[in-house]
Structures are given as structure tokens and as C-alpha cells.
UniProtKB/TrEMBL annotation:
Protein name per its UniProtKB record: Bifunctional ligase/repressor BirA
Family: Belongs to the biotin--protein ligase family.
The species this protein was found in: Roseburia hominis (strain DSM 16839 / JCM 17582 / NCIMB 14029 / A2-183)
Residues spanning the signal sequence: none
Role summary: Acts both as a biotin--[acetyl-CoA-carboxylase] ligase and a repressor.
Primary gene name: birA
PANTHER family on file: BIOTIN PROTEIN LIGASE, BIOTIN--PROTEIN LIGASE
GO CC, one annotated term: cytoplasm
Top class in the EC scheme: ligase
Ranges in coiled-coil conformation: none
Pfam families in alphabetical order: BPL_C, BPL_LplA_LipB, HTH_11
Length: 325
């Protein structure tokens, strides 16, 4: 009942009487009182005034199923939410839930990951309370060949959510790293289970550096956080909700055509690689060229001195003052 209590208190403009809460949820005053006290113990500041009722005064930066459910405004993302204080990997758990027949839109969120993975099997830091670690599970009616484009859709959603939340500029380093001031603030890992012509499920894992004040020496030159860029702390649950509201918007546009034709212009506007000299780390033959934007299939358009090439996979580094990053 805690999520329901929170939702009512959030939506109220004034005090909510204990009697109204009893009638709304069909429980006793004692049950309401216990629920309110549990929320207070979790860090929520709730004022209780005789003959008036309860009023929510402030909300802590906390992640829990109750918090995430109480602020949920999305249409279908998060219809099932699982929260874990510590987990090995949200992607791994989301894939298990897909196999257990949970519906599309199931969301897994963790306070900390101890076996988080990035692209190409890389590990990454997942400290407790500092970031957002979450995975959305989808079961879309989508051709497997079109599924990789969902990574770019997710990148657009995260970028838009960060800009709206912080009021600061953010960009996308193709295909799916979110950067602020040239440093990575978010990584995205999409994994798929599919048949020849049918998608069983897709999981989109997102890790956002929120409250981090520093990073290990080996990644400090290329990593940043929302706090390091703004000097401000942000409510992680609210940012999670904003990401998925943005994702539903972009996903609907994507599914109209099952490609990025309706999103190319906006994606290119956020693309930090665009009009920059890049090095494409193709395993067969690395090459340099000028990044021009993306195609409706999500490929990076790179003009070399001899031809135009389309990059569909691989690492792309942008040339800066200190070389390629």
C-alpha cells in the first residue's frame, strides 16, 4: 500500500485526511498510520496535523519499487517494476523475467550492480547510491534486423531526459554513449534473443552517472557525472521516469516505420561526432573520415578522402586536442 499512499500524497494540493485514505484503500486507520510511518522511516517528510490529515513535504533521493510506482506516468513502460538494492546485472535479471513470461515494458532497477557489463564485454563502475542502473525488457513485433536501432532510440530518450532534468546540454557519441562536455555520462547496452524472423525479447540496459564526485584514475579523463557537470544533485527516480516518458515518445515514432527515418534530424542535432574527424576502429581496416550524420537505418555516414562509407558497427573515436577519444 505504500506506493498507493505516496501516489495520493504526491497528487494532493493540500492535506489528505486519514479517513479519506481509509475509504480509498479499504483499510483501517491503524493500517494507514503504519504505512505513513514506514514512509517516514524511509526518509519521506510527511506532516501529520490533527483534523487535517497528512501532507507530503519532501521526497528523498531514494530508489524503491514504491517510489518508482508512485511517480509512474508512462503508458506501458514499468507496468511491472522490480527493484534490487544490489544485483549482479539488471540485463541478466531482465532476460530471466522475459523467459518467465513477464510482459513487455517490465523494468528492472538496481541500487548497485556487482557484475555490470558494457559493450564488448567491458565492466563498469556501479557504486551504491551514485548512479542509475536499469534495464527495460521489450517483446516487440519487430524484425530482428531492425532491433539494433532501438539502441539509438534509447540514446535519444536518455539525452532528452538529461537535458530536460539538468537544463544543460548533452550529446550522443554514435551510436549510444551520452556525453557532457566531451565526457561519457551514460552507457547503453542492448541485447536480443531472436529466431530467424522473430524477436523473443530485447533488453535495453542503461547506466547513468548521477551523484559520482570522482572516478578511478584509469577512466577519470573520459568519465563524468551529472553532479560533476552541474554541481547539483538530482532525484534519480524522477530522472528514471523522465527517461521512460521520453522513450515511449521516440519508440512510437520508430515503430511507425520500423526505422529511424522520423528521428534522423533530431538524432543528428545531438550527434557530437557530426562534422568532426573520426577514426573508425574497423577490425579489418581502421580508417578516418568526417562524420556527416546517420542514415534511416542508424548507420554513421563517414566521408573519407576517396569515398562515402556507412558504418553499421564498431568503435568510433572523435579527434580532439589530445588525440582520439
Amino acid at each position: 500500500m505504500k506506493a498507493e499512499l505516496l501516489s495520493v500524497l504526491r497528487d494532493a494540493d493540500d492535506y489528505v485526511s486519514g479517513q479519506d485514505l481509509c475509504e480509498k484503500f479499504g483499510v483501517s486507520r491503524t493500517a494507514v498510520w503504519k504505512g505513513i510511518n514506514q514512509l517516514k522511516e524511509a526518509g519521506y517528510e510527511i506532516e501529520a496535523v490533527p483534523n487535517k490529515g497528512y501532507k507530503l513535504l519532501s521526497v528523498p533521493d531514494t530508489l524503491s519499487e514504491e517510489e518508482l510506482k508512485s511517480i509512474r506516468k508512462t503508458a506501458w513502460v514499468g507496468q511491472e517494476i522490480f527493484y534490487y538494492p544490489v544485483i549482479d546485472s539488471t540485463n541478466t535479471r531482465a532476460k530471466q523475467l522475459a523467459e518467465e513470461d513477464y510482459p513487455t515494458g517490465t523494468l528492472v532497477v538496481a541500487g548497485q550492480q556487482d557484475a555490470g557489463r558494457g559493450r564488448r564485454g567491458r565492466s563498469f563502475e556501479s557504486p551504491q547510491g551514485a548512479g542509475i542502473f536499469m534495464t527495460l525488457m521489450l517483446k516487440p513485433e519487430l524484425s530482428p534486423v531492425n532491433a539494433p536501432m532501438l539502441t539509438l532510440v534509447a540514446a535519444l530518450a536518455v539525452c532528452a531526459a538529461i537535458v530536460k532534468t539538468t537544463g544543460r546540454p548533452a550529446g550522443i557519441k554514435w551510436p549510444n554513449d551520452i556525453v557532457m562536455n566531451g565526457k561519457k555520462v551514460c552507457g547503453i547496452l542492448t541485447e536480443m534473443s531472436a529466431q530467424m524472423d522473430y524477436v523473443n525479447h530485447i533488453v535495453i540496459g542503461i547506466g547513468i552517472n548521477v551523484h559520482n564526485e570522482s572516478f578511478p584514475e584509469e577512466i577519470a579523463p573520459v568519465a563524468t557525472s551529472l553532479y560533476m557537470e552541474t554541481g547539483e544533485h538530482f532525484n534519480r527516480a524522477a530522472l528514471i521516469e523522465e527517461v521512460w516518458e521520453q522513450f515511449e515518445h521516440y519508440y512510437a515514432i520508430f515503430m511507425e516505420t520500423e526505422d529511424l527515418s522520423g528521428l534522423v534530424k533530431e538524432y543528428d542535432a545531438h550527434l557530437v561526432n557530426r562534422n568532426q574527424i573520426v577514426k573508425v576502429l574497423d577490425p579489418k581496416e581502421p580508417f578516418e573520415g568526417k562524420a556527416m550524420g546517420i542514415t534511416p537505418r542508424g548507420e554513421l555516414i563517414v566521408d573519407t578522402w576517396e569515398s562515402r562509407r556507412l558504418v553499421s558497427a564498431g568503435e568510433v573515436s572523435v579527434r580532439g586536442v589530445y588525440g582520439y577519444v
